[in-house]
């Protein structure tokens, strides 16, 4: 379930990609499948890194396979040299960071001049519904490691552009997941076992595993209206 459209990044053999906050590795796995491209997945959560690494064993073989590695690290202090990466992906991470501007500065530091940066964050209006349906202490926005802010696209674009990045475009993704999170928030006290939540989860698993034409068409139509996430594409200024 990739949020970033890897095919738009122009990746070629020999490139180095950083997936910052890689979680269980969905974007790392996607980049791994591109021949000759090297990728590093970095995350603070060790169990997620283990799952990401183990997930490589379930991928089909790749001709001219690039290097793929995983590393535990902090977005505020990236353990890499300046200008180390051709592309940095930061998917569904910035909304968890109290000082996201520090992470953006680190991303800029490790990205080569002319390199590409793709952050994805929850879209503002579907996210606001989640906050409203499960408010207060122990609610949706009061979870360990949870979301600490709602990003508005113009503000985030301005913050990133101010660091010397040029904006190149955007797209919305995962519209079929918006109702799932609204249901979970509406039935917050039973979000793991409520019948409606479980039924919709089965629908999402069917969509993910079988990729039927019906849901592909539905999501393509719904993404501009109700996409759960927005992906923003930037290029760092040349040297």
From TrEMBL:
UniProt GO BP: methylation
What InterPro entries does the record point to?
Answer: Erg6_SMT_methyltransf (IPR050447), Methyltransf_11 (IPR013216), SAM-dependent_MTases_sf (IPR029063)
> Which Gene3D superfamilies does UniProt cross-reference here?
Vaccinia Virus protein VP39 (3.40.50.150)
Entry keyword DNA repair: no
Q: Check the UniProt entry and state the signal peptide residues, or none.
A: none
Any one GO molecular-function label of the UniProt entry: methyltransferase activity
Instruction: List each copy of the Methyltransferase type domain by range.
Output: 18-118
Tell me one Pfam family matched here.
Methyltransf_11
Q: Report which superkingdom the organism of origin falls in.
A: Bacteria
What are the protein's UniProt keywords?
Methyltransferase, Transferase
Protein name according to UniProt: Methyltransferase domain-containing protein
């Amino acid at each position: 379930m990739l949020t970033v459209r890897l095919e738009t990044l122009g990746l070629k053999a020999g490139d180095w990609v950083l997936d910052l906050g890689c979680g269980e590795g969905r974007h790392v796995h996607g980049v791994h499948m591109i021949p000759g491209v090297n990728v590093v997945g970095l995350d603070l959560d060790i169990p997620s890194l283990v799952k990401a690494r183990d997930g490589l064993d379930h991928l089909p073989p790749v001709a001219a396979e690039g290097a793929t590695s995983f590393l535990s690290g902090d977005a505020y202090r990236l353990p890499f040299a300046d200008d180390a990466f051709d592309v940095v992906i930061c998917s569904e991470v910035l909304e968890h960071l109290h000082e996201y501007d520090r992470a953006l500065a680190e991303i800029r530091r490790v990205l080569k001049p002319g390199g590409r940066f793709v952050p994805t964050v929850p879209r503002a209006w579907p996210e606001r519904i989640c906050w409203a349906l499960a408010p207060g202490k122990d609610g949706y926005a009061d979870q360990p490691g949870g979301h600490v802010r709602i990003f508005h696209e113009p503000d985030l674009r301005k913050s990133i552009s101010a660091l010397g990045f040029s904006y190149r475009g955007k797209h919305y993704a995962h519209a079929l997941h918006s109702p799932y999170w609204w249901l979970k928030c509406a039935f917050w006290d039973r979000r793991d076992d409520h019948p409606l939540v479980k039924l919709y989860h089965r629908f999402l698993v069917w969509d993910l595993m079988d990729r039927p034409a019906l849901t592909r068409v539905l999501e393509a139509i719904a993404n501009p209206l109700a996409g759960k996430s927005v992906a923003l594409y930037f290029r760092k200024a040349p040297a």
